[in-house]
Write a structure and sequence with these properties.
The chain is α+β, with helices and mostly antiparallel strands and 158 residues long. 25% of the residues lie in helices and 26% in strands.
């Protein structure tokens, strides 16, 4: 029993050393991303929980209870990508009118986590891609603010 206090003290010291190392590393900020570093990711907007539930050995996602049918992108290769839930991504994650539609997202991929951070996005309408981009000026969807006042990144045809 005498070794238990020694073990606890050792764990505390190890935790403090680890926390100190993390704090030092955490002080370094990664270089900022640029618009030029964005990639295009195209797929179908699906409810992540329902999609996982429909797979063999499906998940008990309970998406109506907790995630409220949070949406992601199902790519042509069958991979399911989650969207970063920030101001721009939230509009895609929660907009039921996008579910089932083909979407082209321009943003930054985090492949190890299968996340995409949305910079802007377009929805397929027949043969055309229509910008439903987020912008402090132009809104969340086509027709917001009468399509006027687009920022440089959200201008149609970009």
């Amino acid at each position: 029993m005498r070794s238990l206090p020694l073990l606890v003290a050792s764990l505390v010291v190890a935790g403090l050393v680890g926390a100190s190392a993390l704090a030092q590393e955490g002080g370094k900020k990664p270089s900022p991303r640029t618009l030029e570093q964005r990639v295009e990711v195209a797929g179908k907007v699906v409810c992540i929980g329902c999609t996982l539930e429909q797979q063999e050995g499906g998940a008990d996602s309970q998406c109506t209870l907790h995630a409220k049918h949070a949406q992601g992108l199902l790519l042509a290769d069958g991979t399911l990508w989650t969207l970063v839930d920030n101001a721009r991504g939230h509009a895609v994650i929660t907009n039921e009118r996008l579910r089932g539609k083909e979407l082209k997202v321009f943003g930054w991929k985090f492949p190890k986590a299968q996340y995409v951070e949305v910079s802007r996005y377009q929805v397929r309408d027949g043969e055309k891609w229509i910008g439903w981009d987020w912008c402090a000026t132009c809104g969340f969807e086509q027709g917001d603010n009468k399509d006027s006042g687009f920022c440089d990144d959200c201008k149609p045809g970009k």
